[in-house]
Amino acid sequence: MSEDLVIALESASVVRSGTHLLRDVSWQVELDERWVVLGPNGAGKTTLLNLAAGRLHPSTGTVHVLNERLGRTDVNELRTRIGISTAHLAQQIPGEERVVDAVLTAAWSVVGRWRESYEKQDESRGRALLHQFGVGQLADRTFGTLSEGERKRVLIARALMTDPELLLLDEPAAGLDLGAREDLVGRLSTLAMDPDAPATVLVTHHVEEIPPGFTHALLLREGSVVAQGLLTDVITGDNLSKAFGLPLVVERSAGRYTARAA
Ligand SMILES: Nc1ncnc2c1ncn2[C@@H]1O[C@H](COP(=O)(O)OP(=O)(O)OP(=O)(O)O)[C@@H](O)[C@H]1O
């Protein structure tokens, strides 16, 4: 397998209680690519992200992540090479955790600081990442006192703490107000355009949340791929109409997308 391949699914399906959560998905993500995974509720986006995170095995087909085949590798070791931000993770961080500690604990793949010891340089890196995402001034607050938008940014800083080879973001802009969303989209755009940033997969329901600099898109509907490839080829009215099951018009301006019912 090419060393540049970060994720490779071949005819992967995930079946639970007789239902296909994903059906026959083949997908490849390369080192320098930034992917958006789009689709309606229940389309299988989180299931796909969980495969890419090594948190789930396919029922049939094969999944390679960072050149390791799921089912034949130590997933705990693999997970240390992947940065992930999900709503589920946010819920697991104790409210009384210091914000900078919520970032640092990623180095141990744990939440809730206990007896781990951290180097000074870890703490500096944690603070620098918080600063990069505009929440540096909150480093010494407790996680429970942060707004939704601030938490999302802290979680992305945490996901980057271990200098991962793959970054997975599940609905990073969900629940944010317009200003917070625009701020986050701008920061993710800066990250996407950084050639040293890891391969990235961002899951969202909304084309408005696609940061400029993202290169590829995969559209899902009911567990199956509707379209995948270069962002500009995939984010079209036709494809989105198929994915969301209603006639949609898509417009692109200054690298951003908007969609509305036709
Ligand atoms: N263990 C399970 N058994 C049966 N069905 C399941 C199971 N886990 C998830 N599902 C179903 O699989 C489908 C895909 O779920 P998934 O969370 O991947 O979708 P999603 O695209 O991320 O949805 P959303 O946008 O609402 O978060 C959903 O219909 C969900 O109800």
From TrEMBL:
User: What organism is the protein native to?
Assistant: Catenuloplanes niger
Which PROSITE patterns does its entry note? ABC_TRANSPORTER_2 (PS50893)
**Protein name per its UniProtKB record:** Iron complex transport system ATP-binding protein
Lineage here is: Bacteria, Bacillati, Actinomycetota, Actinomycetes, Micromonosporales
InterPro entries (UniProt xref) = AAA+_ATPase, ABC_transporter-like_ATP-bd, P-loop_NTPase
Tell me which Gene3D superfamilies the record gives: P-loop containing nucleotide triphosphate hydrolases
Keywords attached to this entry: ATP-binding, Nucleotide-binding
Domain of life per record: Bacteria
Please tell me whether the keyword Disulfide bond is annotated for this protein. no
The UniProt GO MF terms for this protein read: ATP binding; ATP hydrolysis activity
UniProt domain ABC transporter: residue ranges: 7-247
